[in-house]
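Q: What does the predicted 3D structure of Excreted virulence factor EspC, type VII ESX diderm look like?
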Amino acid sequence: MANTVDVGAIRDASKKLAAEDGPKAFLRNAKEKLDEVKLSSLSMTILGIGAVGRHNAVIDEHVDNLSKGVEHLQKAADNLQQTASNWEKSDQPWVVK
């Protein structure tokens, strides 16, 4: 049974991934919230400086992961656009089993 590929649906999925109010917005909002919980070196007594450093290091790791997530979503959206373009150019019948 031959099926056709819905290029429009692939493009729509790409647009939804790349949308400013889509999943990237969720990750950006989480990143902003994490930036708010960083502690200054004066947040604790001299005995708590190590804890503050570890806390901020963990926050930095999470922020880095969220930033990478935004980049990966954009890359996925770009790849979907390329896939849609490839399917548009293809005149070969494809069979999905």
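A (community wiki): The structure tokens above were generated from the sequence. The first helix runs from residue 7 to 18. The chain has a mean pLDDT of 87.
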